[in-house]
Write a structure and sequence with these properties.
This protein has one domain. A 4-stranded antiparallel sheet has the order 1-2-3-4, with no helix packed on it. It is built from no helices and 4 strands. A hairpin with a 5-residue loop joins strand 3 and strand 4. By secondary structure, the chain is mainly β. The chain is extended. It binds zinc ion.
């Protein structure tokens, strides 16, 4: 099983308030967010797409014309 840690620049932990120590882990089950300083963790798959704007995907706008 592989998992990747990706730190989110400028993200603040909602539990202990530390900045730049929040990281996202991608696993086979999905994405979850964790704090490197406290025990905060959150499953991003439980959130609605509107509240995960800080997670940038591969989405691109459709080009209607040049
Ligand atoms: Zn924390």
């Amino acid at each position: 099983m592989t998992s990747r840690k990706r730190f989110i620049a400028g993200a603040m932990c909602p539990q202990c308030g530390v900045e730049d120590l929040i990281y996202v882990v991608q696993t086979a089950e999905g994405q979850s967010r964790h704090c490197n300083q406290c025990d905060f963790s959150q499953n991003l798959d439980d959130l609605t797409p509107a509240s995960t704007t800080e997670v940038v995907g591969d989405w691109q706008p459709i080009k209607l014309r040049d």
